[in-house]
Design a protein that fits this description.
The structure holds two protein chains of two kinds. Chain A is mainly α. Helix content of chain A is 55%, strand content 0%. In chain A, helix 5 runs antiparallel to helix 7. Chain A starts with a helix and ends with a helix. Helix content of chain B is 34%, strand content 21%. Chain B contains 14 helices and 22 strands. Chain B starts with a helix and ends with a helix. The chains are: A mainly alpha, B alpha/beta. The interface between A and B is medium-sized, with 30 and 39 residues.
């Protein structure tokens, strides 16, 4: 499945979706800054328990966040946090972090 | 560039040029200033101020930033209760400003900000410097209200009944008191009324002290005297104490009900399932830790420093170590500069954190009114990044964007292997900051050896470094 297809499936199936016009006003920087308090500035982190996000494959990011949100992937606080974002926001965060140099 | 900005730029260079030249990082400042027309001044180099300064330089490298901070090194309050029980030293709490200066070209003035001229957009310092700004960020943290408890004064707090809520001499005093208390003695941990900095913090501290005494002074007692009958993370914290410290959950505690759990973001079905999976142990021989809730008379009315006695609505407690964390209000400078309303905190626009009382001035961190966001390091860090993006837009005449905030408060229940948290995403709704209504705590129906407790403890420890780096490095 292509990423774009996956995203459209997720957009249709997500019960958490808010109107896209609302999400579109939020910049990638605004979305991504929420992760930095644990995962490092711009997702860059070394020698720490938290997963570096900078340079992470976009699909890996999207899948991981969706698995946290659904509970398919066990975790501590990432389940609650992943549920706090729409699928579109998660995709935009994924693209932002994929573009960061690790 | 507007003429007002030109004049504040000139004034800034003239007035602080000599000092700034002597500090590391001025070369980057000059480079930035060459391209730019804008200067932002930050008052307070704690989590909020430092994070804001760093992120504004990252988001808007052509804007120059000056931080006015009285201390040359920062002592981080988050995780500082670990000093009391030897998990950390005062040195571990110390954070340098060098990276902010060197890596990001942020100018630091180590001095006390004293006066502000909101019309001329100038801040003055104790040593007589004047610094012009296009936007002013005030991040002054907290101050304490000693008036609500009779007999409690700054002096009593400094010498007998330390709050130790800002790391420094009081934290060292509390640590010493715990180490030298008699066998079988009593420790009182007394949380404040809402709102206050670090909501799970007083309870984490009580747990840490209990664990320490369990190992070093097993007949000693820890009593939490509380004006409140609930607190953030109460359901998971009390559950942990029930398991770890033969702690009996007070009978009139209202947290373990379907309605209360629904308020933490659970559905009715989830709440029922979690309650079915957690049966508190009734300890016939209670352990060292107890909690006197507000509904049981836990609120302190008066203290007597000479006899080390605390008088509450419910009774009288004589103790060896008395940790009273007084009610809090905005940092002193927020009062001095008229940024506070009748609540004792600073009203702000929830999208930009611009003061409702002063133009071109933004208040972030513990001092501001941010509705559902707790007063925590993570909240301050999150607000700082949001405001850096908004200030970048405002300085170039653009509209601010819809903000998203996040908070995580990690807390240990008492030992390093039993961690927990409260974690939220926040958005704006009807002009207020609200939580996304998701589960925010660990589930109650986990076995006591569930790996998630150990992992939360492990992440708590790692977060001290990753979070400090995000703010200061």
């Amino acid at each position: 499945m292509k990423l774009s297809q996956l995203v459209s499936v997720l957009l249709i199936t997500s019960p958490l979706l808010v109107p896209q016009s609302e999400a579109a006003e939020i910049s990638e920087e605004m979305l991504a800054q929420t992760c930095a308090g644990c995962h490092g500035t711009f997702g860059k982190i070394n020698h720490n328990a938290f997963m570096p996000l900078a340079g992470m494959n976009s699909l890996t990011f999207v899948n991981t966040m969706n698995e946290f949100a659904s509970g398919a992937r066990p975790g501590t606080l990432m389940g609650p946090l992943a549920k706090g974002f729409t699928e579109l926001e998660i995709k935009r965060m994924a693209d932002y972090f994929a573009a960061q140099k690790p | 560039m507007s003429s007002a900005n030109q004049s504040s730029r000139r004034q800034f260079l003239k007035l602080i040029g000599a000092t700034a030249l002597a500090t590391t990082g001025f070369s980057s400042y000059v480079r930035a200033a060459g391209n730019a027309s804008k200067h932002v001044v930050v008052v307070g180099g704690g989590v909020g101020g430092a994070t804001f300064a760093k992120y504004l330089r990252l988001y808007a490298p052509d804007v120059s930033v000056t931080v006015i901070e009285k201390n040359k090194e920062y002592l981080r309050p988050y995780g500082s209760s670990e000093v009391i029980v030897d998990h950390a030293s005062m040195k571990d709490l110390s954070v340098s400003y060098d990276q902010l200066k060197q890596k990001y070209g942020i100018n630091f003035i180590f001095d006390t900000a004293t006066e502000v001229d909101f019309n001329k957009q100038l801040v003055k310092t104790a040593s007589g410097q004047s610094v012009g700004y296009d936007r002013l960020i005030v991040s002054p943290g907290i101050s304490f209200d000693f008036t609500s408890i009779e007999g409690l004064t700054q002096q009593v707090s400094d010498t007998v009944m330390p709050h130790a809520w800002i790391p420094g001499p009081q934290l060292e005093l509390l640590t010493k008191q715990l180490k030298t208390m008699p066998k079988g003695g009593t420790v009182l941990v007394c949380p404040p009324t809402n709102p206050y900095r670090c909501p799970p913090g007083p309870y984490e501290r009580a747990g840490l002290i209990t664990q320490y005494l369990k190992e070093h002074n097993p007949t000693a007692k820890v009593i939490v005297l509380d004006p409140k009958s609930s607190f953030t993370t109460d359901v998971t914290m009390l559950q942990a104490w029930n398991r770890l410290y033969q702690f009996n959950i007070p009978e009139d505690f209202k947290g373990y009900t379907v309605e209360a759990l629904q308020d933490t973001g659970l559905t009715e079905a989830e709440a029922k399932e979690q309650l079915d999976g957690f049966k508190p142990i009734k300890h016939d021989r209670p352990g060292q830790l107890s909690w006197v809730m507000g509904s049981q008379g836990g609120r302190i009315l008066r203290v007597d420093a000479a006899t080390k006695t605390v008088y509450t609505e419910g009774g009288e407690y004589k103790a060896d170590v008395i940790n009273i964390i007084p009610p809090m209000k905005a940092g002193k400078i927020a009062f001095d500069w008229g940024l506070v309303d009748k609540t004792g905190w600073c009203p702000v626009d929830r999208v930009t954190f611009e003061s409702s009382l002063r133009k071109n001035v933004h208040v972030i961190g513990d001092s501001c009114i941010a509705d559902a966001m707790p007063k925590s390091g993570y909240s301050s860090n999150s607000q700082a990044k949001v405001v850096a993006l908004q200030v970048k837009a405002l300085l170039s005449g653009k509209a601010p964007q819809e903000p998203i905030f996040q908070n995580t408060c990690y807390a240990l229940a008492g030992n390093k292997d039993y961690g927990q948290f409260v974690s939220d995403v926040f958005r704006i709704k009807d002009g207020k900051i609200v939580r996304a209504s998701n589960p925010r705590l660990l589930p109650l129906n986990l076995k006591d050896n569930d790996l998630r407790y150990a992992l939360s403890g492990f992440y708590t420890n790692n977060w001290m470094k990753s979070f400090t780096d995000d703010c200061f490095a």
